[in-house]
Amino acid sequence: MTTPANPVALAQALIRCESVTPAEGGALTLLEGILSAAGFECHRMTFSEPGFADVENLYARFGTSGPNLCFAGHTDVVPAGDVDAWTSPPFAAEIRDGILYGRGAVDMKGEIACFIAAVHRILARGDKIPGSISLLITGDEEGDSINGTAKLLGWLKERGEILHDCIVGEPSSKDVVGDEIKIGRRGSLNCELIVEGKQGHAAYPHLADNPVPKIARMIDRLSALVLDEGTTHFEPSRLNVTVISVPNTATNVIPGLARARFNVRYNDAHTRPDLEARLRDVCDAAALEVDARYTIKFSGTGDVFLTQTGPLMETAQLAVREITGAAPRLSTGGGTSDARFIKDHCPVIELGLTNATIHQVDERVPVAELETLTRIYERFITLYFSRS
Length: 388
Ligand SMILES: [Zn+2]
Known about the structure:
This protein is an alpha+beta fold. 30% of the residues lie in helices and 25% in strands. It is elongated and about 85 Å long. The relative contact order is 0.18. The site of zinc ion has 5 residues, from loops.
């Protein structure tokens, strides 16, 4: 039986559940058992959407009064990849030389284990919690993110259940645990550009209209665009052309169409509508230069956000400093996480293990780091409720 106050054993038990997204793999059942026994009220929810796999989720709450401090995370993991390339089986959760190996060790079963261990240590001490602690755990973070956190948050809202502050246990740290806390994320905008021409014979170009040089000019203008110089908490916004495709295989045919895709990672100097308008202006000007007819489409759900300084951030900084002896850097780098949904409900930060091996073969975490993070979470929870 797993001792919930021991993050290492709990992380191992979680890794041994093969919860490759979107499979539950026994991971949520394991957590539900442990949290119920500790006095949490647990809700298991399966969400569906036509065209997507059903996904199981868990919301567990200890206490009924506010403030409600939430820990958000996911038990689903990315596939193991080349199993033979692992030095031990990806779901065996082996410990060698003080290092725990396994898919999900840092992204992010390790953090879930640390948080639950921290709560158990606080309860075991007999400390009263003047408020509530909740866990919002999805099985849909590494997949489509359709039947997970977004719907869980909707379900909470319908019930009138409020989250006051949220800590996401994604691996935010770079070199050592606690060296970075993520306090926001850049926005991500996907764009598809289509330039229309007229198909024809390469020997009779005057009877055709070649879209290839035209899209090349437009891509060049877009790529040269300087969106900003960066802001206080964010690096400069960047546009990257990622796909150019022309539906044509013959060298003697002028194609009728050319298509490009690009992605913009943007900071808080922009709003999404302003950014789209700016890109359209650049495209209009470039299209005018080469007499191009084009359409552009935008997609992507991740808008930029920055968590303002407040009790959540200050408490986390203080807890890290007390346990590790060093102040964490406040960062907005990296990819998106479910914090992008939570930020619409309450202040949210990300604080977790080091991210050097996430999604890689031999994903791993030093056992000592699990203990350090458990102590950080424990101190964080204690400080949070002593301030409130
Ligand atoms: Zn993750």
